[in-house]
Structures
1.
Amino acid sequence: MQLYLNDTSPFARLVLVTALEAGIEDIRLRWVDPWASPDALTAINPFSTVPTLELASGQAIFESLFICQYLLGLCQKNKTVQWCGVDDLPRLSVGKTLMEMSFRSVVLQRFVAQAENCELVVRSRAGIGKALDGIDRVFHAPPENEATGFSMADLCLALALSYVCFRLPDLITERATDNTLAKLERWEKRRSFERTAPQALKAKPETLAR
């Protein structure tokens, strides 16, 4: 398997952390700029998005949660992250949508002139702010023991918040509670989070094991 990614995508990071928590480290990493629509990526994903997981069969999966579900299905033992039960789906929807809206806001500010006045940016930031106002009710701290399991909803919420801190720190400062930030700090200390932080991925390792 090989994973197409870049070093700042929150969706790619979700896949990397899931793989590490599942004990899957033999994935080859293919570093690309998806905005440049490289031939190697568009040959298997016509949308030129990351992450894209190319399987040994030549088929590809290119939505982060589907990739995570696939990886968790490969590993039946010794994985700390579990796929969501029905009761976890509302929290998963908060985390995934927060990640999507934050990414959209960042991308629009990069590519749209006077983005601060763009209706999509305004609506995205408003939604992010409202989500942060109530997120402490659904955001759980990580387990004390690194070997103790948790759900994909927990992981997605933590990584979404981490991305907001990284790209939209003003919203975190304005809207996140001290309790939320304390729980996020505990997540950031997990080995899987430290190894996949944007600054750690700048070295662009060839495999996840490295």
2.
Amino acid sequence: MGVHSQNRGFTLIELLIAIFLGMLVMAGGYSVFQASNRATREQNLDNRMQDNARIAMDVLARNFRRAGFLVNFTSYPVGQTVDGMLTKLTTGNSTAGPDQVTILGGTIQTIGTLQQSVNIGASSLVLTSVAGIGVNSVIGVGLTYSGVVTAVNVGSKTVTLSTANPTGATNMYYPGVLLQTGVTSSQTPAPVRLLMSVRYQINSAVAAHPVLEQVIQGTPEPVAEDIEDLQIAYGVDRNKNRIIEAGEWTYVPTANEQDLIRLVRVTLVARTANPDPLLLNVPQTVPSIEDRPQRIVNDGYRRYILTRIIKTNNLDAVFTL
């Protein structure tokens, strides 16, 4: 008796259909994978960009709040430069690029005390220690005397201050030294501190990765990368009503307005570390920020704009002490 087999294989057409359907499923899965991978990459770049902006803003805010720290405001009238040769905030405004600012104050490091009395206008100081002091350091003696160091003699523990502008505002004495009136001083030695004079600026030497950097004693240090713009406005309380009105914001405060700065409005523009291929050669508008006009870019970078208004605590001390 013959045996009739019921087993049949795939026909060529069925096989081709199965392969085609399988390719459709694989193509769909690959598209989903690509989209997910792209979204993850973009999210990582965006997170890094926003972190850089927040880090940069935190550093700027902390130092703006310390501007003028360790200055005896009660001894000086409003508008007078307290240290005679460095203002508390030195502005550098630009309408075609990033702003910059130099802040005197910030971190204070105690060096020691005076070893000998200092007369008005003196440019040489003999200290108990010169550790940590170098050329271009800014030092403060007591509460009212400060200057930029131009030379240091480690052996005699003597520092020489710049005489470009007068710095001596009062006599400083050491215990046991005879005063000019012939009376022996009983004051304790005037403390000597290393003040931090810091300039903040955007370094675009590497065009693909602009950096917000701080320059301390002539040495630049990176603060945050991929920060392409810094714009600053200053709120000056001209009518002394302790309210910054619309007309009291300025980009270049005068010397007489230094002690009237109550608020600082800082805006940073951060961008992704790498351009987005889909945005290359696609015009994008970067809005106007403070006095810098809007601009059109097509470099493919995604951008993040962060603005913060900062209260200048120590500049306000002239009215609170």
